[in-house]
Structure formats: structure tokens, C-alpha cells
Amino acid sequence: MIADTTRQWIELETGEMVKDVVRLTGGWTSEMRRVETTERSLVLRSFVSEFYRRHAEGLLTREADILTLLGRTAIPAASLVAVDAVGASCADPSLLMTLLPGRICLDDPGIAAQLAAQLVAIHQVEVDESTRPRVYQAWTSPERVQLPADAGTTWTAAVDVIRADPPSYDPVFLHRDFHPGNVLFDEGRISGIVDWVETSWGPADLDVAHCSTALALLHGPSVGLAFPAAYVAAGGVLARDKYWYFLDALGFAPDAEKVAVPWRQCGRDDLTPDLLRQHLEAYLEGLLER
Question: What is the pTM of this model?
């Protein structure tokens, strides 16, 4: 399951023998594998596609720095074990970390309150200039939105919202890819937050918007539209500027296929392109009405 060079790197970095390697499901930007050593269970993230290999150094270095930072907080993140951000010793650029307990939960909209409370805690992580992550990057723009072939007025009105300049905001520490697929649950409670490669500095609304879109896609627009209120009820502060919510949602146009593939691998076979497009369009309609 892993190349000899990667196995040798793991054993050299840990001083432990690799006993077994099992591929994990649910990821789409990188290959995730559970590594059993003579001492413990670890997780290996490797960027194997040509596109992500080109960006691996920045992504993996960022995640290594963030995991080190979070080790000094109460956020339930993995501990960094080793990183080879350019693939100097491994077959692919890779990061090795501890295994967190739990599983993702993609079939229960009732987890929204826990997600909201956890996101408030993430946004309260304190950083100084030396540990502050990069400023957020937008994942779409009016020119890059991929509209459905038969897009109607809902879609064009949504794109018009993000033609404006980004609103001013009070920046906070962002996970930047916070959604149910990156949150682990054990016995009904959050046990871990994974995938910190996109951690950024920016508006809390952007993180809330991203989770709202994911909840709308997974469970229907009403669940996504309700998430900002759950965040505020948990103690969070939002500007509630609609720009951030449309900016995030349109990054999934037209049918959220980029997240649907790993979600289906995790058991949500019902999430067809047609259903996801319906959920996304109805969510945009709900945002426009607010």
C-alpha cells in the first residue's frame, strides 16, 4: 500500500516498524492512509495527483505549522509526527500525524449545534504575527463560476452578489474547510477536527458559510440556512454579510461533484448530481430571500 521509500521514511522518523497500511476513504485532494506501527496508529497524508503535488510544499508546510500551533490549545486536532513537504524522502509529498478517534457523520443534521460550538472555539484561537496563517483565498469569482447549462435568474442573481468588492471584516483564525466531512464523532460527541491544509486568516462568516453550504448539500437548504443562527447561539459573532455566503456556495456550482465523490464513498449514495444541484439552487434561493 505504500512505496518502500515512504515506509523507510516513516520508520526512520518514528523509530517504529510499520506493520500494516490501510487506505482511508473520504478525501479527494490527497490520499489518506492509516499506518499501524509496532507502537501506535498513525495517519499518512500524501499528495499524489500532479496538480496537488505542485502545491504540496505550501499545503503540507502550513498543516504542519498549524498542527504544532493547535497542540497548545484545546482544539481536538492530530499531533504532527513528521512532514516531507516536497517528497525528498517519500514517494510523494507527505505528512504523518497521530490518528484521532471517531468517524465522520454525514447522515445526521442534528449535529449542527455541535459543529457551531466547535467552530466558535476554532475562531477564538489566538495567534501572533509569527503564527498567523495566510490571508484567506477566494475559491471562485464571477468569471470562474461554472453555471448549469440551463441556469436561470437564481444563478445569475447569485453571481451578481459576488461582483461587488469583498466587505470589510474583523479577521479571525479560520479552519477554512470546516464541514461535516472534516469532523470526527465518537459516541455522539466531536472527537477530532482534520484537514488543516487551508487554514487561513479572514472573516468568521466565510467559515460559517462553508459549513452552511455543506449542510445544505447534505441535508437540504433549510439546515444550511439555519447554521449561522446556531453559530451565534453558541457565542459566535457574525457580520452576516450575504457576500460571503454566495462566494462559498457558488464555489460548488453546478452540482457539488467535487465533494459528492468522497461523500458517496462514505455511504451517501443518494447524493446524485441532480439532487445536489437541487439542494444548491434552493439554498441560493433561500439566501436571496434573506
Answer: 0.95
Which DSSP state fits 165?
P
Strand partners, 203: 171
**In this structure, what DSSP letter does residue 274 have?**
H
Alpha helices in 71-193 (DSSP H): 112-123, 153-161
In order, the DSSP letters of 4-63 are HHHHHHHHHHHS--EEEEEEPSS-SSSEEEEEEESS-EEEEEE--SHHHHHHHHHHHHHH
Distances in Å between the Cα of 74 and the Cα atoms of 118, 120, 121, 156 are 10, 12, 9, 42
Q: Minimal CA–CA distance to 215: which of 109, 128, 287? A: 109
pLDDT digits (tens, 9 = 90+) for 50-98: 888 999 999 999 999 999 999 999 999 999 999 999 999 999 999 999 9
* 98 grid coordinates: 497521530
- Is a pLDDT exceeding 80 seen at residue 133? yes
pLDDT recorded at residue 26: 67
